[in-house]
Amino acid sequence: MAIRIFETDPSAKPKQTFSDDTVGRFHGGKQENGLPVALSDWRVTTGNPEVAAAVAQLMGGQPVETDSTSENFIEVLTDTNKVKVVLSGPDAITSDLKLWNGPSLIHHCDGVEFLSPEEDKGKPCRCPELMEDRKAAAKSKRGPSPSIAVAFRLAEDYDLGLFKLQTGSWKLAEVLHEVENALDRVGGEALATIELELVEYTTKKGRDVSYRKPVIRVLKSWSDAIAEPKF
């Protein structure tokens, strides 16, 4: 199941089935003093010291134990904003739309119909039809935002295990169908990159803006990549 905004706004297109057997998670930011802070390089968290050490060796940084109460209590602030990964196919990417009120999920849909709670599942969610209107509703806390999960392996250490990236990026949501189409064309495991890409521009009022957005690029079949002397 994917976000279905593209049924109502074809100019704007993204799936769902995901198991969480992950050894670590990638993040584009962190919390400092209770506030979100964007990062220019990937932050990886894990509960496994061996995984943390392997990530640090591949991507830079040092494993640091945190006082987090979650199961992922070791973090690596890497020196890398782009990494080669292996995606199993379109089913490696899942997406839906969610609106939270603190810890409570108060709206959960695919852009056309509710996905939960069970008594509302399948009923029209009545979200705005156009992508820009959905963004505006989400910004004002009146509508849901994307919830995208990507499962992947590191190309340079395939057997290390499965990692997960969770993001609410509208920019990624807008092009997620292109990534899924590319994975469909590969028809199996694919070599790809995930990157925190720098975006810079100047507004009409002369204000300079810069931020990082998550980008996924499908490169080629993984079987073709490993057949080459060096991928």
How are the SSEs ordered, and which strands pair?
Elements: H1 5-8, E1 24-32, E2 35-46, H2 49-59, E3 63-65, E4 74-77, E5 82-87, E6 93-101, E7 104-109, E8 114-116, H3 131-139, E9 145-154, E10 163-167, H4 170-186, E11 190-202, E12 208-221, H5 222-227
Parallel strand pairs: 1-10
Antiparallel strand pairs: 1-2, 2-4, 3-4, 5-9, 5-11, 6-7, 6-9, 7-8, 9-10, 11-12
What would your notes on this structure say?
This protein is α+β, with helices and mostly antiparallel strands and 231 residues long. The chain has helices spanning 5-8, 49-59, 131-139, 170-186, 222-227; strands at residues 24-32, 35-46, 63-65, 74-77, 82-87, 93-101, 104-109, 114-116, 145-154, 163-167, 190-202, 208-221. Strands 1, 2, 3, 4, 5, 6, 7, 8, 9, 10, 11 and 12 form a twelve-stranded mixed β-sheet that branches. The protein starts with a helix and ends with a helix.
Summarize the structure in short.
The chain has helices at about 5-10, 50-60, 130-140, 170-185, 220-225; strands at about 25-30, 35-45, 65, 75, 80-85, 95-100, 105-110, 115, 145-155, 165, 190-200, 210-220. By secondary structure, the protein is α+β, with helices and mostly antiparallel strands.
